[in-house]
Amino acid sequence: MSTTKADLIRLADERVLDARALLDAGRFDGAYYLAGYAVEAGLKAHIAKLTVAEEFPDRKRVLDAHSHDLAKLVHVSGLQTELDEQRAKSLEFRENWATVVDWVPEMRYWNPGKLCRADVELMISAIADRRDGVLIWLKSIL
After folding, report:
1. How high is the pLDDT of residue 112?
2. What separation in angstroms does the CA of 7 have from each of 35, 48, 67, 102, 137?
3. What are phi and psi of 100, to 5 degrees?
4. I need a labelling partner for 57 at 20 to 30 A (CA). Which of 14, 26, 28, 131 fits?
5. DSSP secondary structure letters along 35-52
6. Which residues of 80-119 are buried (b: 16+ CB within 10 A; e: fewer)?
């Protein structure tokens, strides 16, 4: 089963909605965890855009593209220069990226209760802020 760029964009939007629903329900750990996947899906949409039909891809690039490491996904997606430029242009975006890049999927093994409402609100805002959100930026340059 293949996943398209459009599938990944839809998935990113759904994960933000899921994170907000969990936040509203007081399920902070799950909300934060799913919010991070929204950014991962957005970065993977950019990687999908680079995929060329009938090209046999480089093994390392394929393995890195299946990573959950957001910094590694930026590299594979070819967005490092654009990310650096956006961080230089906007202090708010730079702060949002600093919030988002700390996300790791291994947090699913953390003991519940490690995060509070403010942590999740900050993460969701960093991702979905209409002016300087990381996911909003990713979608704007697709």
Report:
1. 84
2. 17, 10, 18, 25, 18
3. -70, -40
4. 14
5. HHHHHHHHHHHHHHHH--
6. eeebeebeeeeeebbebbebbbebeeeeeeeeeeebeeee
In the chain, what are the domains? 5-140 (1.20.120)
What is the rounded CA–CA span in Å between residue 114 and residue 121?
14
Tokens of 17: 């909605």
Residue 130 · residue 122 · CB < 8 Å: no
**What pLDDT, on the 0 to 100 scale, is given for residue 1?**
67
Residues contacting 16, CB < 8 A, separation 6+: 35, 38, 124, 127, 128, 135
d(CA 24, CA 16): 12
Per-residue model confidence (pLDDT) at position 49: 93
Low-confidence ranges of the chain (pLDDT < 50): none
d(CA 84, CA 52): 26
Nearest to 131 by CA among 96, 100, 101, 103: 96
Residue 55: both structure tokens together = 């090209």
Q: Read off the pTM.
A: 0.93
